[in-house]
Every structure is written in structure tokens, then in C-alpha cells.
Amino acid sequence: MAHSLFVNEYGTRPSGTLSVARWLNLAALLPWSLPLPQTAEGRQCEIEDLNSIYTEECSRLEMLAGEYGRAPEISIPPAVLEQYAKYRPTPLRRARGFEKALGYEGKIFFKREDGNPTGSHKPNTAVPQAWYAKEQGLEELITDTGAGQWGCALAWATRACKIRCTVFMTRGSYKNKPYRRYLMEMMGAHVFGSPSETTKSGRRLLAEDPSHEGSLGIGMGEAMEALRSRPNARLALGCMSYYAALHQTVIGLELAQQLVEDGVEPDVVIGCVGGGTNFTGFIAPFVAGPPYWNGQQPRLLAVESASIPVLTRGEYRYEHADAFALTRMVKMYTLGRAFLPERMHAGGLRYHGKSPLLSLLLHHKRVDAAAVTTDDAFNAGKLFYEAEGILAAPESCHAISQVITEVTDCEKRGEKKTILFCLSGTGYLDLAGYADHFKLV
Amino acid sequence: MAHSLFVNEYGTRPSGTLSVARWLNLAALLPWSLPLPQTAEGRQCEIEDLNSIYTEECSRLEMLAGEYGRAPEISIPPAVLEQYAKYRPTPLRRARGFEKALGYEGKIFFKREDGNPTGSHKPNTAVPQAWYAKEQGLEELITDTGAGQWGCALAWATRACKIRCTVFMTRGSYKNKPYRRYLMEMMGAHVFGSPSETTKSGRRLLAEDPSHEGSLGIGMGEAMEALRSRPNARLALGCMSYYAALHQTVIGLELAQQLVEDGVEPDVVIGCVGGGTNFTGFIAPFVAGPPYWNGQQPRLLAVESASIPVLTRGEYRYEHADAFALTRMVKMYTLGRAFLPERMHAGGLRYHGKSPLLSLLLHHKRVDAAAVTTDDAFNAGKLFYEAEGILAAPESCHAISQVITEVTDCEKRGEKKTILFCLSGTGYLDLAGYADHFKLV
């Protein structure tokens, strides 16, 4: 080889070598125990209650939540590692263009989950969920999705396992943002705009308001109703469950390794939160501390939509995961299951509660919360696009907006902090939203 | 760190470390001399002829083409390396899911250029072109674009250099596929559907046919006309020029290093061709041979659209680069500058000729050519999406379709070849085309 051509001629890591082989069971590492889910009737869930809803392995993982003192690490099954190896490790990048655009003298890094299969972080949990279903001999997974990131990921993961995939997609997105629906349908998934005509609860809502826009809570309710008549089907959740948060720790563990290799110690770590599983996975090593993260403890900042101010204005209590009180109840920050957000483009953030794990961390002040308006999010996304050429999902734009706030604060105080955020998904499939916001149509 | 968590605990290459510092001047390494461009009047171009059209540095690089025996390597300017470092090196991935879907027992690898800023390989040449313009003190770059990959990349690159960007976008794409137009406009570029009302030639064509769909040749003609009245502007070309092919060798050199590191020796190397610069950059080390590529010589396969069969059915002769005979003439395979392709979704392939460098390589049988129909391309893209969760640009789908053909041939002969292709751009911005093709709307 012509070594003179290469800046870094001794770089030896084969491209695309997977670096993480276990998930991190945060519940076992926290000084507080994570409240277990309760049945719709208010009794503490047993694994049998969950088995009829989730796959057996997801139910087992969900029950780990409350059991303090368990193993801190869960091995990733080889079949799942094989799928992860298709796209992981994902890049950790320095946002030099964005730093320059902001005139910031500190450093900004971001972890790219937007190049993953189907364009977001969601395959990290879709892949194991589909594999569990296959191992259990199930025929179908049913789910809900907002903007469609989760539905697309599950459609991909189930196809590889030859499992049927049914998706209840928030009706506002189904009608106005059809691109992710096309992707799901290309993958062979069955997609319904929710509320839909296929369930009783859906029909009731449509009778009341034929132009009902839906919500994630309603979608989950319809998924639960559909589940009841299909014994070989189970519910798959892309957020809000402990198992999904567990699966997402693959991001954080991989990130910790990259930070050590690159010699980076973040002062502030920022992520957007819909349910909060992506965020908790992203921050997992910092929450766990040594030996998972031996550096300084950064400030951890969860950013929600100001239209759905669960963390900043909700209550911490037991509430149903769905709008119809069909699912289990979980202890979480919530605006109440009947909460209906205004129309918004960041469909993935459109949910009445936040995950029990994130809620616990917030309750004990281990993470901080901030709320960002849709306007500020899109403006931040545009600035990031101009600077880096990367279009972030509207969800991720909330994190980027908060990065700008932190930079402004740093500049006021004359500080040069290292800020890190998670780019959780691509915005190319949300261009209609951008175009609408910036009046380009 | 908890080393037990990591499969590959001694991986040491910092993420995102740029590995290539020079471009490869293929013209200096070929046994045949590359015919220089001629002026519109038929005289061999001097650098002065080009200086009024391109930036001075692009003109200088363009003249390298004909001069046999020059330096085989050109240093990448530090300011350009800095921009490249934002997204390079790009991943080399094994397509295990696609292998499985095809039941193929050989290996398939692909180089991902779809995660680059603005979603394609185009920034590799947009970045240096914008920087040259800035260094020269110019105020504007004018260009044409088909589906918009090139326009988006130039809009990004010029913004960073504070250079105005004007884009003539093939009118069919401008009207029917507005997403990349939105991206260009968000970046601050001035975008016209071509043929447009802003030039004489555009107005003439619209008068003849108000629903004219345009072509890259027409767009380039309008760009040339606009240039004539703006002394502080120059033309920027994303393909067809020698300089753009030179810039794209960053892909091939990086690739060669990754192949050595990963111990991969491809038997067949496949890329789609619009003008052909991405493809020639991709295959550069294999064409150059030792010391740039010391492994076995793979078969090199350029894949064009069957709707625009330049390589498989065109003539090798001098022809104007634009439809109106305003630009220089280059020696290339061409269907004639008046050629108008049928309506198609792979807008980037919609051009009447192929680059002189690719044409020379084909003429001397150093590369082979194949043509793929739009139907086959979309079907291949869908299969790849199902298997890998990655949606390829319709342009790239032509390469994927050819991969399937090669796999089929291998299976017939009982061979297990290693096939490598370039995933030149993301398809998320072409979902309307996919949806239309698969009748999902």
C-alpha cells in the first residue's frame, strides 16, 4: 500500500467491528429500586400478567426492573449481535461546523444513530424483540407508532424473523406524513391510521371526531385491543418499557468506549425524550458510574417538547401506559392518559408519560429536564443542517436546541464545556414538516 | 473500563479519524492519454479558456487530464481535509442480510456514501470547489442538478465558504420531487426549475413546450448562459469534469485501505454511473494498481440506466457537455447533446454523455458496462431495503440490481465471488419515487 497517502497509517480497527456484547441492567446499579408495573386493576404485576402481553423474554426483562441486586449486565444473544453488527458501532462525531456557526470555543460531540437501518435508534430494541418472538414461536407482533420511526424499525426486524407486523400509526402522521408509512408497507407491515376502524375503541373515537389526529396512547390502546383476539401475537413497545431501555444501553456502552478512545470527557450530555428509552440508554454508563464510566460525572439533561411538558410539569404517579386503561400501570411522570397534545411535527414525542426508569432518575435528581418549543427545535435543526449538512429528525432537534441554550449559558459564564448529544434519527423523512415550518412549500 | 463488555477491547482507531490526505491523479497513471476538452469552436482548450468558466484551481486540475507523466498524487488542501473529517472515513459494510436474502454463499460488501452531509457522495467534490472559489475571491457558483444530490451538496459547501449558490434543477424533479429543493432552499441556495424563465434558452424551450421536463444538459446550458453576465461567478460541475473525478478518488483510496485492513479482495466492483465521476473515484485504486492496490485485479463494472444507454449504445466522440453547445466539448461516449430521456426517477442518471475519463477506460476495455431498467432498479432497491434496512437512492439501486445479476451468474457457475458496490446516496429523499413505483400512494 502507498502509505504516504494515509494520515493515520497504523489505524488497525477493522471497519464495522462490533464493540459491545452486553446490555447494562441499570435497575441493578441504582441506589433506588424501580417501581414495578401494576395490572390495570392496581395489583403489582407478576410475570404471568406480562406474558400474555409481551414476549416471554421481554416479560422476564421487564421484571428485572424491580429486583435490586441482580446482575448488572445481560448478554446480548448471538443472533441479535449479528444484526447489530450490520450497523454498529455508530459514529461519534465532533460538530466542528456547528461549533463554528455558534461561535463556540468549547467542544460539541454527537452520536449518530440516524444512519441505522430505517434511519433511527429504534432497531436497537426492535431487533431483539423480533428475535424473542421468533424463538417463542409467535406469529405476529403488534405495536403503535407516532411519526413512524418505531414502526419502520419493527417492520424491518420482524421481516428478518418472518414474523407478521401490525402497526397502529398516529393518524395525524398517517395522513400528513406518509413517508414512513410507505417504508413500513414496502417492508410488508400492515399499517392502520389510529384511531382506526379496526378496533372498537378506534371506531368510538372516530364516531366522536372523524378527523381525530390520534396519539401514541390511543395507538397503544388499539394495539392492546387487537392483541386480545390473537393468541399468537404479542405487543412490542419501542419505548416506555424497561426492556426497551435495556436494549438501548448498547448506545451508551459503545459511546463510553469511543469517548475513552478519543480522550473526551463530556460536561453536559443531552438527549431528546419521547418515552425516554433512547435517552436512558444513551446516558446509561454515566448513571452507572465506574467501571462503566470512570471519567467525571457530566450533567445529564433530558429534553422534552414544550407541547407535552411531562417532566417539567407532570406528576410522578401510577398511570396507564395507554389512553383506554387497557395496559398495565407504571409509576412515571405523566400528564394523565387522556392528555392530547396539540398538532406537532415531532410525532415521536407525542405521548402522555415518560418511562419509569427516566422518571425515577428525574425524581431523584440524577437527571435534569428541559422543555423546548417546536419553533426553537426546527430553528436549531436548520442551523445544524446548514453547519453540518445533516438533517436531524424533529425529535432530535429538541436536543440540538438545548445544546444551543447550553452554549449560550457557557458563553455568558466564559466557560468552554464539552457538550455531547444524541442524534437519534434522520430528518429526511420529516422534510414535509421542515418545509411547512419554513414555508418552503 | 469494564473490558468484559467489549468484543474487541483493543480497538484503537479513534472514531472518525480521516485516513486519506491526497487525491489520485489517474490520468498520470494510465497508459493512454486522456483527450483534453475542446472549445465550443473545436480548438483544444487552453487553461485560459477554462478560467472564465471554472475556478482557476478547477481549470488547472482539468488541464492535468491530458498531461501524461504528471505527479500521481495531489495533496488535499488542509481546509478541505477539515471538511472531509466531518464525515469521512465512511463505512465499508458487509451486506450479510442481502447475501441471506439472495441465498448467496459468496460475500457482498458496500461502501456507504449515503450518510454524508446532504446524503450522497457529492460533497467530496462540492467542498473543494467551494473552497477554491473562496480562495479566488469569487462571489457565486452556478450549477445544474438533476434529482438534486449535487445541488444540495454544493449549497452546503458554498454556505460554509460564504459563496452564493445558484442551481438550475431539472424541471421534472423540481416539480415532482421537491424534497431536495427544500433542502437547497433551507441552505440559502437560489433554485430554478430548468428550463426556466430566467434565461433566453430556457424561455425558448418553455415557449415550445410549457410542460418541458428538462435535462441535465439543458440545466448546464442555462447555467452557462447565466454565467456570461456575472463576472464574479463560475460554473461548478458535480460530474463530467476531470476535477470532480479527481476529488472522488478520496472514496477509492479510503476504500483500498479499509479492504486491506479487513482482509477483503473483491472479484467484482460495481457502481452506478450518471456522468461517471463517482464511479471512477470509487474504482481509482484498482485502475491505478500497485502501490495503490496490491491485490488481485477485480472486474470493474459501470452500471447505467437502460433509459439512457450511453455506454452500452452511445458513440465515442467529441460532444458538447450541455444541450445548447455553449460549453466546451469533451471526448466521451454520448447519445448526442439533444438526447432527451424518458421521465424517470433516477434524475441523477439523466444525462446524454459520460465523463471522458470513464469513456476512455471503457474504450480501452479497462471497465465493463451494463444497463439496468428502472423497474429492475427499484425492485433491487426494495429487496436491499428489506434485507438491510437501508434505502438506496434510485441511482444506487442500479448498482444493486447489477449485484443481483452477478450473484445469479455466480450461482449458475457455482462460484463464490466477493462483490463490492458503492451505495452512492440515500433514497429517503426519493421515497415519492419508490411509493409511485410500488403503488403505495
What does this structure look like?
- Chain A is globular and about 60 Å long.
- In chain A, the strands form 4 sheets. In chain A, strands 3-4-14-9-10-13 form a 6-stranded mixed beta sheet, sandwiched between helices. A 4-stranded parallel beta sheet of chain A has the order 7-6-5-8, sandwiched between helices. A two-stranded antiparallel ribbon of chain A has the order 1-2.
- Chain A is an alpha/beta fold and 441 residues long.
- The first copy, chain A, has helices at 47-51, 56-64, 78-84, 96-102, 123-135, 149-160, 171-176, 179-186, 200-208, 216-228, 242-262, 277-288, 310-313, 356-363, 374-388, 394-413, 431-437; strands spanning 22-24, 73-75, 92-94, 107-112, 140-145, 164-170, 190-194, 233-235, 268-272, 299-305, 315-320, 329-334, 368-372, 418-423.
- In chain A, β11 (315-320) and β12 (329-334) form a beta hairpin.
- Chain A has 17 helices and 14 strands.
- Chain A has a domain at 84-119 and 242-437: 3-Layer(aba) Sandwich (Rossmann fold), CATH 3.40.50.
- Chains A and B meet through β3, α6, α8, α11 and α15 of A and β3, α6, α8, α11 and α15 of B.
Per CATH, the architecture of the domain at 84-119 and 242-437 in chain A is: 3-Layer(aba) Sandwich
**Share of helix of chain A, binned:** 25-40%
Strand order of the largest sheet of chain A: 3-4-14-9-10-13
CATH topology of the domain at 84-119 and 242-437 in chain A: Rossmann fold
**Which whole number gives the mean pLDDT of chain A?**
90
Question: Structural class, judged by helices and strands of chain A?
Answer: alpha/beta
Number of helices of chain A: 17
Q: What is the tally of beta strands of chain A?
A: 14
For the largest beta-sheet of chain A, the strand count, sense and barrel status come to: 6 strands, mixed
Strand percentage of chain A lies at 15-25%
